[in-house]
Amino acid sequence: EFRYGSRPLASLQGLDTSGQVIYVGSFGKTLFPGLRVGYLVAPEPLAESFATASAELYREGQLLQQAVLAEFIAEGHFVSHIRKMRTLYGQRREVLLDAVARRYGDALHALGSDAGLHLVTRLPDGVDDRAVAQAALERNIVVRPLSGYYAERERAASGLLLGYACVPEDEIPTAFATLAEAIDERAFGAAVEAA
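^ that's the sequence the OP posted. Answer follows.
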């Protein structure tokens, strides 16, 4: 849903011509995590089995939330909401990309920044991204070390995941400047002059 600068990619299920793919999702990122409603789109031969399993396993009462969500979608509000949020998040993304480029130029590489709700940045080889994340946390900035997402620690790239969805656009430059202090301290050994 949140792809910037190009059309959204087709889902695997949309590309499947033999009815072998099950599409699973939730509304945690598109609406809000507290909704806790997911969905599953199964191939026709499996639909009845999944409906039976759902009836057997589903014991909590979120029928009201499901009914309201169904109405929200049916009336076209969900599509409108996605368009609005894509624009909002796209603007925040651009502000963050600009802050990274202004401060570091080519010294900090942004990867795969055309989709999602976060930016992945590569730190120079040999930099302990966990130490950078800890230094950022000490400044009240929460980022995730990229190395933590690798199954094999010795093959892990050093970098940071910078979420921007919940940061107001006008606060991003200041927040990034604070993060840059932690990056400079741990990655470059000293403050880097702003470009």
